[in-house]
Structures
1.
Amino acid sequence: MVHANAKLTPRGRLELARCVVEDKWPLARAAERFQVSATTAKRWADRYRQQGAAGMTDRSSRPHHNPSRTPRKTEQRIIKLRLTHRLGPARIAGRLGLNPSTVHRVLTRYHCPRLTCLDRGTGRRIRRYEHDRPGDLIHIDVKKLGNIPDGGGWRVTGRGPGKRNRATTPGATRDRHGGAHLGYGYLHTALDDHSRLAYTEILDDERKETAVAFFQRAHAYFTGCGITVRRILTDNGGCYKSFAWRDALTAAGITHKRTRPYRPQTNGKVERFHRTLADEWAYARPYTSEAERRAALAPWLHMYNHHRSHTALGGLPPASRVTNLTGQYN
């Protein structure tokens, strides 16, 4: 590709070189005719003598030799550490006494994928997939979340009260109005694979009866959005291996699929959603009570489904892939 300041195109170079080589023009006359220096005219004439018309195209400006390049043996050590220990540039640089930018250049030169693109267990590149239609696959999972006592948790009251609250967490307590003080809340989430549309509820446990009841409400929600659920993917939790769960899905005509044991990456979309949920809702600000945090869930979920840009969807919200979803522009 000719650079922006070049006076000669490959065709002009060829004409100049033929004037000098074949028509025997003096270099000065050819340089004046084509408005270039005599040195440039000589360079193209010499290249025409050596390579013919094929030599008139641009060459790479990359040098043939680079004395300052990292030695090949050092590059091999960098790649070995990356493959065997899955370390980032900074940690590899610390082990080998190199600059992190040098390690990064070597990893880029050898087309090493980012660590976020690799499976932590095997080191293999993660296979990304996405089903073609809403409802083809619904991811369902549960995330356990510690309840916030009245007055706030350790983010509000400090580490001392927070430790006392945690010591009594295993048995949940409630006040006279039935509000949860300590213990855990269980986030049950159903997430559509194609659109990333999410339905989440905070429930008291993850028993089979609770999971089945959640599925029925989630199924009704997706049906109301015009989504026909065809298959559901869960992990191997006890509630998802129960007869009650199997019978509920069979009655709805839905195929159930479970992930491989110890492979949460298979259900990675809902796992990633729970991380977003924690960052942007559960721990986004210091709540003073569990009731305050729970009241903020529905508005955040609406924002996520209808307004929040999603990187996997080209910056569009999940609602953009569900044409029959109400409340999209509220």
Note: The CA atoms of residues 129 and 193 lie 9 Å apart.
2.
Amino acid sequence: MLGSSRQFRKKSLALSAAAVTTVVTAVLATPTAHASARGTAVGHYVALGDSYTAGPGIPTQTDANCGRSDRNYPTLTAAARTVATFTDVSCAGATTAHMTGSQGAAPPQLDALRPETDLVTLGIGGNDINVSGIIGRCVILGKLNPGGSPCKASYTLAGIDQLAGRIAATGDKIDAALQEIRRRSPGADVLVVGYPVIMPDDGSNCYSTVPIAKGDAPWLRDVEKRLNTMLAARAAAGGARFVDTYTGSVGHDLCKPLDVRWMEPMEGVDSAGLHPNAAGHQAMSTAVLTAVDAARR
């Protein structure tokens, strides 16, 4: 689920990275379409997450190893409000393990937190359940049985739903990450950012664009919804707030034309394949800004 060039397209979630923390220590008050008359002020904003946060393939890339863009939703969010200090340590390929453990040469992402940090966005979990591997398997099986649901069948052998187990296990890891964020930055407003629409929400498919079997398309849609539902539940249980980026992105899935879609197909044009493009990150930023402002009214 998570890529800037062909490297990201082929290994969209398996990107090992040497992250360089981006710290902007100036007031980022660049006028944008998000500008608010309230001028919501944030002292220290830290962005944590995987490639759906980093923005691989979207120019300009500020960290090639992590696939981090200066047009990703954290940067757009910081630029739309009065932020004194902004730190973006999101990195393609990150899992919950990289919150407290290093990712290649990149330090643990939670090391960016401070006691005075007052805003944190966390976009993580897709790599924990191996979304890229799931989609990869579905593409292979879809070529063998385009009219069936071979991928779903392969993940539910003997009546055991493998992905349900993965999602549940990831929930425990989200809990631990949120607890550690709260310990390091007790006064922070913590936003858990969900994943935007990938496959069409109506369950349809575009086989010529992404060769996923007809019956697997709605199943994959539901897997993503289950992941987002888990993230929302863990956010609520952990004293954080969930940012729904899925609902607003319905109708902008990877099957749509270039000028409509917010999610790129396997051969990405405006971003790495199977990742949000620039328009997608703009929409995600809008959702985050709405949540930020709601807490500061």
Note: The CA atoms of residues 43 and 73 lie 18 Å apart.
3.
Amino acid sequence: MSGLSALVTGSSRGIGLAAAVALAREGFAIAINGPADDDELRAAVETIRAEGVKVVAAPFDVTDLGAHDGMLAEIEAKIGPLTTLVNNAGVGVMQRGDPLDASEASFDRCLAVNTRAPFFLTQTFARRLVARKRDPALFHSIVNVTSSNAIAVAEPRGEYCVSKAAAAMSSKVWAVRLGRENVAVYDVQPGLIATEMTAPVIAQYEERAKAGLTLFPRVGQPQDMGGIIAALASGKLPYTTGQAISADAGMLVPRF
């Protein structure tokens, strides 16, 4: 085996599962995470097991900060020292609409899952890395999955945009702190991706993509994001850290 291993949060479906599959194909041992030990999580584990790598289920709520260290210890006891953390777990707004009507509950939920949880899970992961002797031949990395909405406003889900903008800044903070530890940190910012979260609106965005909203006339697939995440985590962009990868088919390229 490669000696590489990754915890991918929110990996029982969607972008997270696609990332876990892509990482497994690069030889990573994988910890699959979801909030509960349910059928969906178990099915994801079997999907990864079929790739012929070590895999373990890691059911925990990423917003439970007190569970982070114990869960990382449990994962490492089963698949070995983690080299990679992919912070993918995320939520959307509780109800789309005018920011004048956004609720405190929806705002707090977005911040708790999309911003606070990955910041402190990264902190716990990084403390464990720094405290131990590491094989210098192994690439160590953190990949945060934020959103094009870290840059571009979507008025009907303002609190989501705020949470992703803050998460994008967290990526830069950790890149600065962990550079001297030889840990690379990246921020993948997906655009229009067909997932369970976007299912209610993806059809209309697909039409807009064909009409020119994106430079490639299609919406993205979770596998597109998985390939990007795996390439970053595998060190295929050497001598880079702190980058935000606009995985949006050129949607945010300024045009006249």
Note: The two ends are 50 Å apart (CA to CA).
